[in-house]
Amino acid sequence: MSDVTNMLGHGPDAPALLVISAVALLATVGFHTWWARRHNHAPPTPDDTGARPQTAGPRTAGQQNAGQQTAEATTLWRMRTTVRDEPGSLAALCTVLARGKVDILSLQAHPLAEGTVDEFLLRAPADLPAADITRDVAHAGGSGTWIERADAHDLVDAPTRILGLATRTALDAAELPLALRQLLGRCTIRSLPAKTQGAASGPRADKAADGAPVEGGLEGEGTVLRLRAPDGEVITVERPYLPFTPTEFARARALVELDNRLGPRIPRSQDVLTLAEGNSITVRRADTADVDAARAMHDRCSQRTLGMRYHGPVRDADRYLNHLLSPRFGRTLAVRTASGRIVGIGHLLWDGDETEVALLVEDDWQRRGIGTELLGRLVSMAVEAGCESVYAVTQASNTGMVAAMRGLGLPLDYQIEEGTLVITARLDATPVSSRLPYDRPRGRAQRH
After folding, report:
1. What is the H or E stretch that residue 130 is in?
2. Which of the listed CATH numbers 3.10.310.70, 3.40.630.30, 3.50.50.60, 3.40.190.10 matches domain 270-447?
3. pLDDT per residue over 304-330, tens digit each?
4. Residues with Cβ < 8 Å from 176, sequence gap 6 or more?
5. N or C, which end of the chain is more exposed by having fewer CB within 10 Å?
6. Which own/partner contact pairs does 307-314 have at CB distance under 8 Å and 24+ positions apart?
């Protein structure tokens, strides 16, 4: 090889030999490229008119419709069933689902003392009824099967979803009940402050007075979950149709512990609005730090205005404020004037598995659109929280509240209960605002 190199580099005909070698090399490369294209070993050039896979070119309208029909031909299901804790039990379950052309998108296992609870996210043919799925699962050895429709949100994997719920809870104390509901599915959540437990009455008084263990516990054959905060507050979660698993209990307890460690907190951003007459008001979230300012507003309100709001002895109105302004029981919006006085308060209250809205506007500031503004924002919060409806308890003579509810443009139900009017607005068709009033960046948003 060294002799050939010396001859090419130092021989008398070296330049000619180099030129001849270069031409031979180019000819070889050209022949190889032609051969590769002819035998489909290289991608086609842009001007190639040969046949290509359909996925490489634009789809026709007929192909798009066919693709849409294929996508719409399936249904998402969430299913939970208990299987024996022995080899092959899960395999038998997966086999019977595969026979029905049911695709398992995700699976979580919840070990129990006897057996294992398997939670599935399934994609099944649209014409396959849920009853057929549960029947097939029973034949494969599954017991206590529960199934319900799922949606695209359930496609998020469990760790990501739980981290998202923890983040929401960390940013806003009012998110804890909502996070627990999303974590545990359809359930009823109630919170009982420590100082009211001794005053409880009725068949549940003894349990409330005793409180829950520090580490929490499961009751009622596993369908009642009770957790206690360090201040003695008891949070009760009930789900009669499906017992809680130890894994769910641990996750719920972790969320409550996170909330306890972070303490009271709400977002402090605000909006500045300009009323029709030119006055500016500020709308922001409120909590128990605003009790004194809210009590001062009570003192400026007439007996009639307070009676319309609280439907009871007006002298007792002040004692409701600590409960109403606590983020644990809902969300509160306060309207302040340029001088800092609170002249209006709106509440969105978690009432078990229902949601109540309530408004109070100081007499001198009524009929200026403040109540309507507050109600619209509270409804946006309810939609964002996934509430199906909100209700307001008022009197038929409270024309301002009735008009504000009608101004929502939503389907309304009216009921008279013990002399009071209950108006329920269904939220299933309500568009959610792109940004909620307490979720704005720093700075002020001027509205006219």
Report:
1. helix 130-139
2. 3.40.630.30
3. 888 888 876 667 677 778 888 888 788
4. 169, 255, 256, 259, 328
5. N
6. 308/394, 308/395, 308/397, 308/398, 308/401, 309/358, 309/359, 309/360, 311/393, 311/394, 311/395, 311/420
